[in-house]
Amino acid sequence: MCKFLLLVLLTLFIPMALTGGCSSSNQDDPGTDPPADSVLYGFTPFPYDLSLEAVDKVHEIILPNSNLYAIHYDRCIPWQEALDGAEFPEWIVADWDDTKNRIPDAHAVYLAIAPTATDRISLAPNCGPGGEDDIKPFPPQFEGARFNDDAVKQAFLNYVLRAVRHYDPSYLNIGIEITGMSLNTPERWRDFEELYDYAAPAIKAEFPDIRISVSFVLQTLLLDRVAKQVKPLLERSNYLGLSFYPYGSEFGEAQGEPPLPGEIPAQWREPLDFARGYTDKPIAITETGYTTKDIFLPEAGINFPGDEEKQRAYVRDLVEISKENDFIFVVWFVPVDYERLLDDIPGFPESFLIWKNAGLFDADVNPKPAWAEWMGFKD
Known about the structure:
Layout: H1 4-13, E1 40-43, H2 52-62, E2 68-73, H3 79-84, H4 90-102, E3 108-113, E4 126-128, E5 131-136, H5 150-167, E6 171-173, H6 179-184, H7 189-206, E7 211-213, E8 215-217, H8 218-221, H9 224-235, E9 240-244, H10 249-254, H11 266-278, E10 283-288, E11 295-297, E12 302-304, H12 308-324, E13 329-332, H13 339-343, H14 369-374
Parallel strand pairs: 1-2, 1-13, 2-3, 3-6, 6-7, 8-9, 9-10, 10-13
Antiparallel strand pairs: 4-5, 11-12
């Protein structure tokens, strides 16, 4: 479930980060995983309002209650500058610097970067110099390019390497929710595999301890043909990254995914059990959440059921399951409900409603019952 458009609107108003080849390689070397009896846990610093005060408040909440900082770059890429090794647009440099300055030294860093557009099928848009709303036409060698074209592979590698050098992450995701490609255009999957197999070994060569993978939408992974197609790439990666919003079953079903169980706790326990049996790789929850209010999208005709007790039960089980199964890390995507933010964005797409009540704090920045369960990560 893509949050790109909302992240873009936020960064137009808040001038700081809001996070916001052809040969294969087996990357099972020792890395920087936490001890087996611990789980890294954290958030993306997603703000609840269009103000610097909201950004600061979110950090006040999440930094003492996490040991992982998640950076989610699901936007555009300056393709020509990346290919040429030229300076990036000033807004990207400022964004990266502001983000890095907020990360505590003691926190592990998880960095996620998408080479795809928000449809998880096409090439990411081309960044312009004026900000994220300044999307420029592709340079000639990128117009109509495939993911395994030489220019795309080299530019993406260069872009990721710059980000890794800047943030020094322990964990890297270079294909956010990439199962969307296998689901909707399986004929393009091999192109992406070649991009991954070009970039990952080169990143490892410079940063041998970094743990590299992609993230899969867990509901999509339940589709047998998708699970079979993406498995070889997973086996060349360091961990299984999962994007999982258990309340979003109807959204996935509308795209052809199998339904999630209707009853709790089977709604999340059965898919997570499947994931554990799917691979021997370590598991990381790269993004997750649960709404505390029922949401209906009239244009799409899709329901998102939720309430505070369901969220509390999910977080309680998530802490327990991640500890029992030695998950590497868990990222909760939205810390605070962002109803205020939507009040300031006239005419927003109805898809922005999907996560608005998925915070562990309500719109008045009061903790919900699930917050006490999140504290279980500290035990």
